[in-house]
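Shipment paperwork, digital attachment
Item: protein structure file
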Amino acid sequence: MRTEDDLHVEIIYSRPGDSWQVNVPAEAVARVLAPFLGRKRAFLVRLLNGWSKRAAATGAGVSVRTTQLWAKADGEFAESVAFCESVGFSTVIESELYRRALAGVADRGSMRALELVVKSRAPEYREKAQIQLDVIQQASEASARLVAGWQENNPTRAE
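Attachment content:
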């Protein structure tokens, strides 16, 4: 079982013009990838490189649903997915967002597109109204599942 210290990622935001540094201990990455081979490892490596889950799954030659089933069946794989997704997001997407934001007008290319990617993948970057809608949607879905489960266990009788 991994501890949080095993998966520590240090992100250093420096001055404009400097490169962003995301320090990920090689040992942590090796521990995350070591238990998995083939398509599972290919999927995780793509996540480490900042790919979305859909793109990583396609690149590894599997469906998103397959990766969800793998994660559901294997807790260690689920933890590895979360770690790789977090590292990939920090190293590629988030660092590029900060670089462009601080670069000034000279390098603002496709900032809106990058902003949309960031908001779609990280709730902390979304507007509050967007987050509230997500919470309402999740609550509505949970409520529907509860009602459906109750109805299955308590069928009404025609008299």
